[in-house]
Here is the input.
Amino acid sequence: MLRGFPAQVVAGEALKSRLVLLGQRGTDALEALARGGLARYLLHRGEVPVLLLPRALKGVRRIAVGLDDSPASLSAFRMAEAWGRALGAEVFGLHLVSGQGGCCFPTYLDPETLGLAEALDRAKAHLENLLKATGVVEVSKGEEELDLLRLAEAREADLLVLGSKAKSTWRHRLGRMVEVLAHRSSLPLLVVPEATVW
Here is the structure.
Protein backbone atom coordinates (compact mmCIF):
# COMPACT_ATOMS: atom_id res chain seq x y z
CA MET A 1 0.00 0.00 0.00
CA LEU A 2 1.53 3.30 -1.08
CA ARG A 3 0.60 6.82 -0.05
CA GLY A 4 0.59 10.00 -2.12
CA PHE A 5 -0.99 11.53 -5.21
CA PRO A 6 -2.15 8.40 -7.12
CA ALA A 7 -0.90 9.38 -10.59
CA GLN A 8 2.55 10.36 -9.30
CA VAL A 9 2.86 7.24 -7.14
CA VAL A 10 1.87 4.95 -10.02
CA ALA A 11 4.22 6.81 -12.38
CA GLY A 12 7.09 6.36 -9.92
CA GLU A 13 6.39 2.65 -9.58
CA ALA A 14 6.01 2.37 -13.37
CA LEU A 15 9.65 3.36 -13.81
CA LYS A 16 10.58 0.06 -12.14
CA SER A 17 8.52 -1.90 -14.67
CA ARG A 18 8.58 -2.67 -18.37
CA LEU A 19 4.83 -2.26 -18.80
CA VAL A 20 1.81 -0.70 -17.05
CA LEU A 21 -1.64 -2.28 -17.44
CA LEU A 22 -4.71 -0.13 -16.87
CA GLY A 23 -8.28 -1.42 -16.96
CA GLN A 24 -11.01 0.80 -18.36
CA ARG A 25 -14.69 0.46 -17.59
CA GLY A 26 -17.57 1.47 -19.80
CA THR A 27 -17.62 2.32 -23.47
CA ASP A 28 -20.54 4.75 -23.74
CA ALA A 29 -19.72 8.30 -24.85
CA LEU A 30 -19.69 9.87 -21.37
CA GLU A 31 -17.51 7.16 -19.82
CA ALA A 32 -15.11 7.22 -22.79
CA LEU A 33 -14.77 10.99 -22.41
CA ALA A 34 -14.13 10.68 -18.69
CA ARG A 35 -11.41 8.06 -19.15
CA GLY A 36 -7.96 9.07 -18.73
CA GLY A 37 -6.85 10.77 -15.53
CA LEU A 38 -4.20 8.21 -14.69
CA ALA A 39 -3.82 6.88 -18.24
CA ARG A 40 -3.35 10.36 -19.68
CA TYR A 41 -0.79 11.24 -17.02
CA LEU A 42 1.26 8.11 -17.73
CA LEU A 43 0.95 8.44 -21.51
CA HIS A 44 2.12 12.04 -21.48
CA ARG A 45 5.15 11.18 -19.35
CA GLY A 46 6.17 8.75 -22.09
CA GLU A 47 8.43 6.72 -19.82
CA VAL A 48 6.97 3.23 -20.07
CA PRO A 49 4.58 1.38 -22.41
CA VAL A 50 0.96 1.46 -21.25
CA LEU A 51 -1.58 -1.25 -22.08
CA LEU A 52 -5.17 0.06 -21.91
CA LEU A 53 -7.71 -2.71 -21.43
CA PRO A 54 -11.34 -1.82 -22.17
CA ARG A 55 -12.07 -5.55 -21.93
CA ALA A 56 -10.28 -8.73 -20.94
CA LEU A 57 -7.38 -9.75 -23.15
CA LYS A 58 -7.85 -13.50 -23.53
CA GLY A 59 -5.14 -14.65 -25.84
CA VAL A 60 -3.47 -12.74 -28.59
CA ARG A 61 -3.40 -14.29 -32.06
CA ARG A 62 -3.22 -11.14 -34.20
CA ILE A 63 -1.42 -7.89 -33.36
CA ALA A 64 -2.12 -4.80 -35.47
CA VAL A 65 0.35 -1.91 -35.42
CA GLY A 66 -0.63 1.56 -36.53
CA LEU A 67 2.22 2.72 -38.76
CA ASP A 68 3.57 6.01 -40.03
CA ASP A 69 7.14 7.05 -40.82
CA SER A 70 8.03 8.30 -37.31
CA PRO A 71 10.57 6.90 -34.81
CA ALA A 72 7.63 6.29 -32.46
CA SER A 73 6.03 4.01 -35.05
CA LEU A 74 9.28 2.10 -35.48
CA SER A 75 9.50 1.52 -31.70
CA ALA A 76 5.90 0.30 -31.63
CA PHE A 77 6.50 -2.09 -34.51
CA ARG A 78 9.66 -3.53 -32.93
CA MET A 79 7.86 -4.09 -29.63
CA ALA A 80 4.92 -5.73 -31.42
CA GLU A 81 7.37 -8.04 -33.21
CA ALA A 82 8.88 -9.05 -29.85
CA TRP A 83 5.43 -9.73 -28.42
CA GLY A 84 4.46 -11.63 -31.56
CA ARG A 85 7.48 -13.93 -31.20
CA ALA A 86 6.79 -14.50 -27.48
CA LEU A 87 3.06 -15.14 -27.94
CA GLY A 88 3.17 -16.93 -31.29
CA ALA A 89 0.98 -14.18 -32.73
CA GLU A 90 0.82 -12.74 -36.24
CA VAL A 91 1.98 -9.11 -36.45
CA PHE A 92 0.82 -6.82 -39.23
CA GLY A 93 1.08 -3.12 -39.88
CA LEU A 94 -1.79 -0.83 -40.82
CA HIS A 95 -1.33 2.61 -42.35
CA LEU A 96 -3.91 5.16 -43.46
CA VAL A 97 -3.49 7.66 -46.27
CA SER A 98 -5.93 10.57 -46.31
CA GLY A 99 -6.50 13.60 -48.43
CA GLN A 100 -5.25 16.99 -47.28
CA GLY A 101 -6.96 17.95 -44.03
CA GLY A 102 -7.55 14.30 -43.09
CA CYS A 103 -5.96 12.44 -40.21
CA CYS A 104 -3.16 10.84 -42.17
CA PHE A 105 -1.95 13.14 -44.93
CA PRO A 106 1.49 11.69 -45.80
CA THR A 107 4.43 14.05 -45.51
CA TYR A 108 6.62 11.72 -47.58
CA LEU A 109 4.33 11.78 -50.66
CA ASP A 110 2.46 14.38 -52.66
CA PRO A 111 -1.01 12.82 -52.94
CA GLU A 112 -2.28 15.83 -54.86
CA THR A 113 -0.20 14.76 -57.87
CA LEU A 114 -0.82 11.02 -57.42
CA GLY A 115 -3.89 8.90 -57.97
CA LEU A 116 -5.12 7.02 -54.89
CA ALA A 117 -3.85 3.62 -56.08
CA GLU A 118 -0.36 5.00 -56.75
CA ALA A 119 -0.29 6.85 -53.41
CA LEU A 120 -1.22 3.65 -51.56
CA ASP A 121 1.41 1.61 -53.43
CA ARG A 122 4.16 4.16 -52.77
CA ALA A 123 3.20 4.45 -49.11
CA LYS A 124 3.38 0.66 -48.72
CA ALA A 125 6.81 0.47 -50.38
CA HIS A 126 8.09 3.39 -48.28
CA LEU A 127 6.98 1.84 -44.98
CA GLU A 128 8.22 -1.65 -45.81
CA ASN A 129 11.62 -0.21 -46.64
CA LEU A 130 11.69 2.00 -43.55
CA LEU A 131 10.52 -0.62 -41.08
CA LYS A 132 12.17 -3.65 -42.67
CA ALA A 133 8.85 -5.28 -41.83
CA THR A 134 8.77 -9.01 -41.31
CA GLY A 135 4.97 -9.03 -41.35
CA VAL A 136 2.35 -7.67 -43.68
CA VAL A 137 2.01 -3.92 -44.19
CA GLU A 138 -1.45 -2.89 -45.38
CA VAL A 139 -2.12 0.63 -46.58
CA SER A 140 -5.66 1.89 -46.89
CA LYS A 141 -7.52 5.13 -47.49
CA GLY A 142 -8.82 6.74 -44.30
CA GLU A 143 -9.91 10.23 -43.31
CA GLU A 144 -10.22 9.98 -39.53
CA GLU A 145 -8.45 8.28 -36.66
CA LEU A 146 -11.28 5.82 -35.99
CA ASP A 147 -10.76 4.41 -39.50
CA LEU A 148 -7.62 2.73 -38.13
CA LEU A 149 -9.63 1.08 -35.36
CA ARG A 150 -12.25 -0.07 -37.87
CA LEU A 151 -9.55 -1.53 -40.09
CA ALA A 152 -7.92 -3.38 -37.16
CA GLU A 153 -11.31 -4.78 -36.11
CA ALA A 154 -12.08 -5.85 -39.68
CA ARG A 155 -8.75 -7.74 -39.72
CA GLU A 156 -9.73 -9.44 -36.43
CA ALA A 157 -6.88 -7.96 -34.41
CA ASP A 158 -6.81 -8.88 -30.72
CA LEU A 159 -4.48 -6.00 -29.83
CA LEU A 160 -3.73 -2.64 -31.42
CA VAL A 161 -0.27 -1.10 -30.91
CA LEU A 162 0.59 2.57 -31.44
CA GLY A 163 3.78 4.54 -31.02
CA SER A 164 3.66 7.55 -28.71
CA LYS A 165 5.27 10.86 -29.58
CA ALA A 166 5.18 12.00 -25.96
CA LYS A 167 7.81 14.65 -25.25
CA SER A 168 8.59 15.01 -28.95
CA THR A 169 5.80 17.27 -30.19
CA TRP A 170 4.22 20.30 -28.60
CA ARG A 171 0.67 20.52 -29.87
CA HIS A 172 -0.33 16.87 -29.76
CA ARG A 173 2.34 15.42 -27.52
CA LEU A 174 1.19 11.85 -27.99
CA GLY A 175 0.27 12.07 -31.63
CA ARG A 176 -3.32 12.64 -32.67
CA MET A 177 -3.99 8.94 -33.31
CA VAL A 178 -3.06 8.05 -29.70
CA GLU A 179 -5.04 11.01 -28.34
CA VAL A 180 -8.23 9.80 -30.06
CA LEU A 181 -7.89 6.03 -29.68
CA ALA A 182 -6.85 6.13 -26.02
CA HIS A 183 -10.40 7.33 -25.37
CA ARG A 184 -12.31 5.52 -28.10
CA SER A 185 -10.68 2.14 -28.76
CA SER A 186 -12.84 -0.91 -28.18
CA LEU A 187 -9.70 -3.05 -28.64
CA PRO A 188 -6.95 -3.41 -26.06
CA LEU A 189 -4.48 -0.65 -26.94
CA LEU A 190 -0.75 -0.77 -26.26
CA VAL A 191 0.90 2.66 -26.40
CA VAL A 192 4.68 2.52 -26.84
CA PRO A 193 6.89 5.57 -26.18
CA GLU A 194 9.40 6.06 -28.98
CA ALA A 195 12.41 5.52 -26.69
CA THR A 196 11.20 2.06 -25.66
CA VAL A 197 13.50 -0.91 -26.24
CA TRP A 198 11.90 -4.31 -25.58
Summary: Confidence is low (pLDDT under 50) at residues 29-35, 168-172. Helices lie at 6-14, 29-34, 37-45, 71-87, 116-131, 146-154, 176-184.
